[in-house]
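Issue: copy button drops trailing tokens. Both records pasted manually instead:
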Amino acid sequence: MRTRTEQWRKASLGLAGLTLGVSLCAAQPPVDLEQRYPAGSITTAGLAEQALADAAATREAVDARYKAESARCAHVFLATECQDKARRAHTLGQTQAHRVEVEAHDLQRKLAAQRRASERDVQQQQLRQQEAERPKKERQAQNAAQQRADRAKERTQDALRQQAQAPSNRERYEQRNAQYEQDEAKRASVQLRNVAENERRYQDKQERAKAYAATRAREREENRKAREERERQRKAAATGGTTDATAAPPK
């Protein structure tokens, strides 16, 4: 009975050891920090970020392996030696991760310091440039202010001159208006005279036309009577009759 119990216990321990071995293999570090990141190899910001991520993953893997080894060592012969070996492996992994983290953080601090120094240099350069340009800008501002003051003074003087010239300007304006009215009156008078002259000429033309028409009518009537007298005399001569010399011509 005791033999079967011991056999069952050994089988259980063997199964537990196999399980822990599988867990141990699964908890191996994802990368070899010493091989991937030897001392002085972390030289860029991107490499520093990747090294920190790998160091964090290595720490998790080392902790998981140490936990699995501690559980396994509790069931093996020479447990203390097994625990010491697991502890040394854990310490070595943590030390390697710590070394990579320190180097990466040192580089990040160095790059940050360089960036801040560069920013300070740029700011100082900008300040020096601003200080160098300050006198010029101040002169430009003073000139602009003086120009504004001069323009304001000129506008004030123009307003005063316009006020002083206002009476003479009104007088000239009134004179121009009076002259314009006189010119308009003259033009209107000339137009009226022209209208009257045109009317007179028109009347004269009408009178001459009437007189001419009357003259022409009188001439036509006289010619008609002369033709009738010649015709009467011709008929009388043709019939051999005597003509009463004293007879008045027909009217």
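Record 2 (pasted manually too):
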Amino acid sequence: MPGGYPFLGHAFQLRSHPLEFVQSLRAEGDVVAFRLGPQRAYAVNHPELIRQMLVTDAKKFEKGKMFEKGRLVSRSGLFTSEGDFHLRQRRIIQPLFHHSNIARYTATMWEVAQSRVDSWRDGQEVLMNQELFSLALATVTKVLFSTELSDQRSAEFQQSVPVLLEGLARRALAPIDLLDKLPTPMNRRFDKALRAMENVVNSIIDEYRADHAESADLLGALLRARDEQTGEGMSDQQVYDEVVTMLIAGTQTTADALSWTCYLLTQHPHVLQRLQSELDETLGDREVRYADLGNLRYLQQVIAETLRLYPSTWMLMRRPVVDVDLGSWTIPAGSTVLFSIYALQRDSALYELPEQFNPDRWAPERAADIQRSAYIPFGSGVRGCVGEHFARAEMAVILSVILRDYSLHPALAQPTEPIPRLLLQPSAIPLIIERRLAGREHQDA
């Protein structure tokens, strides 16, 4: 592919304009060769070839550089582990996210979200991306630990996560690993944030073992979980790795998706009004229950469309362990292979008017026409997100609580822009919240 720079190859384009670059690659073919530094890399664009990597030939690939860098934070957690160990961890953890457990977690999600929203004031300006990060953190920690983080621990976590995600993204896209070791301000901030994360999580686990060993929450389940094939549980270190993985994945990704949803609803008030009508008719003034989520069909369509336009994991990497044939290309073992979920889900060959926010494309009569492999916001195959149903439930509950009680209006005229770090995060989203007359009217009495 033309346009690279000496020594850097196309790393500069990928670092400076990543979303535009990955979208431009789709015009170059089903598979495109380019350079990251001195090394040749490959972008896979065709949805069926991506599915081949993730599902059919999954055992021929390991997760690659992006995930290796991720081990600096989550070590051997489910997000970064490989091979038989990954399968073992998935067997242990997957039952914790069974529908019956998510039904229990839903009650906690509602409790936390309603308490937070009840503290809002009519006409208040809210920096929604920060508020939703705080709310998602409170929700996940309540489900994990049956408690709430202290203000100090919560502040440390909220300050650490963005720094860690930015640092991991820089490391994953750096043309050479030497840049990770230089005493730059970014690297120093990363090391400080990592130490803060380790201190917070380890102190929670230590206290938890002393006082909550038999708790019925998610951490208690992690400590008691056993591999159904071997009967083995997890070491203390592995519990730490999985807790960090769940905290980051269940907080930042959910907060980002919720933030994008709220922003899109302010840009499409007719969608917001239709959604609020559904909430009023389905819920009235009672709490949100797990059984309600399947009946909130338009809400599910809104969530699906948000995740299409703004998937948190906007790009992923793989590395073949053997030579692999993808279409007409043979990808050598050890190569860097990337694919962009963001670019895939905005491809005009796969979606009608792909840049348009249109929840009706997910109506049952239309969704069947969308190619299954063209929509993968949570990944696919054995490495797909084990917490997908948890994340969707959390999003649905929080949005139900917010939008039943409040309408949302933009506080500023300028649009929110995507910031592609390790995750696809929004720039600031200042909104004015206006209490609705519908919904839980008794609160105004």
